[in-house]
Write a structure and sequence with these properties.
The structure is a single chain. Helix content is 44%, strand content 19%. With 329 residues, it is of the alpha/beta class. Helix 8 packs across helix 13. The longest helix has 22 residues. The N terminus is likely disordered.
């Protein structure tokens, strides 16, 4: 074959191969992603559920990928600082957000001037897990289930107060949903974090609050607080005697979720790879069993399904916030 013909054929072959290689692979090496350490940002301090499961997922992905996956806690401003850090990161898959729901679905409806737009600036990858909250009361409160509690509060308007981890938090808005749906008179006492709220609830100073189901299990089993209602659509195996609030308030459902997001513009093939690898972990029986012990359930969905869930949650919270007249501090 003449040299000129070989050159033409070689160029044609390379052109054809270029069609088969996606732009993301050509620019970022997505076919071999990841080829260096990955950073996972958690919006909240160490020790909470987002941090615990963010680190579990980071460890599993590190093993699967053969690359370090490092968790970085970027806290403050009700999760906005960590969220913004990822929203402004390079969209190459090497900076991810292990997101809790509130900065994504609640904060935008509170009238807060956020440095990011969760829809415009972030790309959903996969919802890993979600779990309900537990409505708990001090043992001095004469109610042992939600129905009795509802009748008690309704019969004594203005007498009862409840604690939350902050204005506009999931716990605050869950109780405001109940307050407006049940036509109750309750006084909100916001704290700077769940730990402070819990301290006063344990002493009976502010006798009721919502807590994440994982943190609630030990408190209820020890008798320090009484679990009277679950915010999910059904009872949970870890607390089988605590009824679902939806049994008395149809349609009531408040679930905290934890999932992976990336900066907007991250190549789709990288998004798909991370999604597939996370799903492989989420589907493991031992991982699902651990979640169940904590009162949380595995989700595992597509980027499109996760985006739709975020949109539904944001619309729900916008409605609750408007009905209850909640405003940011």
């Amino acid at each position: 074959m003449p040299l000129r013909t070989r050159i033409v054929c070689t160029r044609l072959l390379l052109a054809l191969l270029g069609v088969c290689i996606s732009p993301a692979e050509a620019q970022t090496g997505a076919g071999a992603f990841p080829s260096r350490p990955v950073r996972v940002v958690v919006q909240y301090p160490p020790g909470g559920t987002p941090d615990v499961y963010g680190r579990i997922m980071a460890g599993e992905l590190s093993t699967l990928w053969g690359q370090p996956v490092v968790v970085e806690n970027r806290t403050g401003a009700a999760g906005a600082i960590g969220t913004d850090a990822v929203a402004k990161a390079s969209p190459d898959g090497y900076t991810l957000l292990f997101a809790a729901d509130a900065p994504i679905t609640i904060s935008p409806s509170l009238g807060i001037r956020l440095p990011y737009d969760p829809v415009r600036d972030l790309a959903p990858i996969v919802n890993v897990a979600q779990g309900p909250f537990t409505l708990m009361v001090h043992p001095s409160v004469p109610a042992r289930d939600f129905r009795t509690w509802l009748a008690l509060v309704r019969s004594q308007p203005g007498k009862w107060s409840y604690a939350s981890s902050g204005n506009g938090s999931n716990q605050h808005l869950a109780m405001e949903w109940i307050r407006t749906a049940g036509h109750l008179e309750l006084t909100h006492v916001p704290y700077k974090g769940f730990g402070q709220a819990l301290t006063d609830a344990l002493s009976g100073q502010v006798p009721m609050l919502f807590g994440g189901v994982t943190a609630s299990i030990g408190l209820i089993q020890s008798g320090k607080l009484i679990g009277i209602g679950i915010s999910g659509p059904h009872r949970v195996a870890a607390l089988p005697d605590v009824p679902a609030i939806a049994e008395e308030i149809p349609g009531f459902e408040v679930l905290a979720w934890y999932g992976f997001m990336a900066p907007a513009g991250t190549p789709r093939d990288i998004i798909r790879k991370i999604n597939a690898d996370v799903l492989a972990i989420v589907r493991r029986p031992e991982f699902r069993a651990r979640l169940a012990r904590d009162g949380i359930e595995a989700v595992g969905n597509s980027p499109e399904e996760f985006a739709a869930q975020i949109a539904r949650d944001a619309a729900q919270w916008s409605k609750v916030i408007k009905a209850a007249g909640v405003k940011a501090d």
